[in-house]
Amino acid sequence: MKRRGQIFAVLMGVLMISGCSSEALQGEQFREERYGGMHQNMMKGQMNHQMQGHMDHDNVTRLEDSTGTNELLIPPLLERDENGEVTYTVTAQKGETSIFKDAKTETYGYNGDFLGPVLRLNKGEHVKIRTVNELDEETTFHWHGLEVAGHADGGPHAPLKPGESKTIELDVAQEASMLWFHPHPEGKTAEQVYKGLAGLLYIEDGQSEKLGLPNVYGKNDIPLIFQDRLFDENKQLNYEMLMNEDGTIGDMSLINGTLNPKLSVRKEKVRLRLLNGSNARNYTFKLNNGGTFTQIATDGGLLNEPITLNEISLTPSERAEIIVDFSNVDPSDQLALVNEDGSTLLPFHVVGDEGEESNIPAQLNDVTLTEEEKNLPVTKEVELFGMMEHVTINGKKFDPNRIDFTQKQGETEVWEIYNKPDMMGGMIHPFHIHGTQFKIVSRDGKAPSENERGWKDSISIKPGEKVNIAVQFKHKGVYMFHCHILEHEDNGMMGQIKVE
Ligand code: C2O
Ligand code: CU
Ligand code: CU
């Protein structure tokens, strides 16, 4: 019943907007204007559903094409601290960023004005990270994808007040991968990420370097953090005004914080490490000439074998590493990375020079789903349901004082994640578990696609879909599991597991 009311409210909004001019809209009105297109699209989707039995929730605001005027910013590699025992210092701070030529945007960043540097950790080392909060509000430091003890995981139970700092310690035991870090304060994650708190965490293991893959940071090994943003009329990230309960979707595409980026490459194989760092938008990446590329890694490590693809989809917080071969690409080809809706995300500027020799070996890793894991019974059921602020897991909203599940350290259990459709069809929920890299056992009873047969910490779950995953925790503690549409997470689509 409540949902009918919402549809009605949205419909009324659309009707009202269509009658007013787009000039000089302010505040609420401005927000309504910017969202008009999306609401209309959603309405179309909802009407489709009534008629065709499914809801097309992906029909969201198209991203503006990148004009390619700015060279892509490459996040700096964070230097290790010189003295003492702390390896790295990470400070959350406020800043100002020239995203647009003619304005300064108020932003948040780690050790800088916007986004963060790359932290590089080596498998086998003991690391201390000093985290510092220089914001005017509480924050936490969460290491997404890192297998770390609960007390160092930086979930909502570990807030740092303004001015506080805390040093965490961990042993790096997982394989080469690109993870990331972001804040996780209760109810405020979406806003803090939106303003710019997100950074990358690379794990190196000495093994993967021997494979001969493109590996020169910033040259033929490029991180790409994809984020969509809405800016207000003053070119500010006015989250309170622009936010959407169902996930804030923007019309401007930023990559590594760069608006209208282009990437200059040489004639060589280039490894692109993709992170969907958006609050809610799903991407399907393609090359504008329909050409193929090679996926070599998932969220938590290399795939066993390289997989040839001509598109790859990532829901919020998912990562993939792909290799695009520019050896025979000509500048006049105007090759670009595009999104499913055809919008140009990243034009490539191919310069004449030949680059490094690199190759893609046929065997990259050895991660397999064992017979035992395939045959384990389902012992945890997770039901994702709802939209807008009415999102739940197993019918409940997040309660920091409630433990939803327990699991034994080092024991593998199969979790079945079910996205329960509602009367309007439903939407994709990206499901994430803290403190572990898991394997997909099956999607609706079938083996996962080849490019999902690797370590994962976030997975997309379509409406009506059931995904079974084999989950093991290496450490003890309390961990979150949640939908990684950040507004859903903040609205309580999150539970807790205690590993003991
Ligand atoms: Cu990206 Cu709860 O995390
Ligand atoms: Cu996480
Ligand atoms: Cu969700």
Automatic annotation (TrEMBL):
Keywords: Metal-binding, Oxidoreductase, Signal
Homology family: Belongs to the multicopper oxidase family.
Organism of derivation: Bacillus aquiflavi
Signal peptide: 1-26
Protein name: Multicopper oxidase domain-containing protein
Gene Ontology molecular-function annotations: copper ion binding; oxidoreductase activity
Species lineage: Bacteria, Bacillati, Bacillota, Bacilli, Bacillales
One Pfam family it belongs to: Cu-oxidase_2
InterPro entries: Cu-oxidase-like_N, Cu-oxidase_2nd, Cu-oxidase_C, Cu-oxidase_fam, Cu_oxidase_Cu_BS, Cupredoxin
Domain Plastocyanin-like: 94-207, 247-330, 378-499
